[in-house]
Amino acid sequence: MLRMLAVEARAAHARMKGRAIFPVMSVYRWIGGFGLAPLIAIGIRDFASSEPGLRVGWLGTVLFISLSWPATFICDASGIVQRFWWRPAISIPWNDIVELESTKAGDLNLYGAGGQRLCFTRFHSDPGRFQAEVMRRAKLRRLSKLRMPHRWICRP
Predict the structure, then answer these.
(1) What's CA 104's distance to the chain center, in Å?
(2) Buried-state track 92-113, b at ≥16 Cβ within 10 A, e below 16
């Protein structure tokens, strides 16, 4: 299933509106939406009649799914921005990008001169164009390969 989603992400294209926008691919959004909507509906329906432990578990599950939603990346003339729905955006100007690193899982880690780290996961759309945009605009000569062991979760 994960391999199928990664192939789908490579086939998806970034939206271009004067800037390149790299969202999570649409299949991932549909799966998340169809999984979260019934969970919320059932929780609201049964909230008053359920035990306190079930309420806490339901609320924790909804919060976990909501807060783990991947970021959207926006590339424009000034730099790259990683935008989550629940926290402030992180931006790195093009001239502050020092390294682009590829993991064995297909994620791309972007490092800034100030210690910032942005993670473009294998579930974001159009990873090839993202890599090309960063390499070209940040004037990076090569893509680094991750030397550390494989990680399943790309933490921001």
Answers:
(1) 17
(2) bebeebeebbbbeebbbbbbbe
Nearest CA-CA partner of 123 in 37, 22, 16: 22
Mean pLDDT of 20-49: 77
The answer to whether residue 66 scores a pLDDT higher than 60 is yes
Q: How far apart are CA 83 and CA 26, in angstroms?
A: 17
* Global pTM exceeds 0.85: no
Question: How many degrees, rounded to 5, is the angle at CA 40 between CA 48 and CA 24?
Answer: 160
| DSSP-assigned states of every residue in 127-151 | HHHHHHHHHHHTT---PEEP-SPP-
Domain 2-24+70-145 architecture: Roll (2.30)
Give the model confidence (pLDDT) of 78-133 as tens digits. 999 999 888 899 999 999 999 999 988 888 999 999 999 999 988 888 888 899 99
For 151, phi then psi, to 5°, come to: -115, 140
Separation between Cα atoms, residue 135 and residue 100, nearest integer Å:
8
User: Residue 18 has what pLDDT?
Assistant: 64
